[in-house]
Amino acid sequence: QVQLVESGGGFVQRGGSLTLTCAASISSFGRVGMAWYRQAPGKEREFVVRISSGGNNIVYADSVKGRFTASRDNAKNMIYLQMNNLEPDDTAVYYCFYPAGGVWGQGLQVTVSS
Fold first, then answer.
1. d(CA 59, CA 69)
2. Cα distances (Å, whole numbers) of residue 80 to 1, 44, 58, 87, 109
3. How confident is the model at residue 1 (pLDDT cuts 50, 70, 90)?
4. Does residue 70 register a pLDDT over 90?
């Protein structure tokens, strides 16, 4: 069974940084695109970034462009989200997503204080 396990959430002050990690049990991880989404309280889940199978094609939402960096290590079946210069509007539950399988990670709370 495909499983995505996230780690690395937490609390930071405005302007701080966090790195999220998603460990994937996907059998052919190096052949599939992955993504990060987030959902703030009272809002719909929104796209954050997608990353191609080889990690060379990455597309960011405008709201995080220039501040967040997605990457992956296919040898470790891991994807990452480096979040810099965090803002209070970044406060949300962050989800790793496997689009081809429609599988979500468990979600990680990221809270950015003012």
1. 10
2. 21, 22, 12, 19, 15
3. confident
4. yes
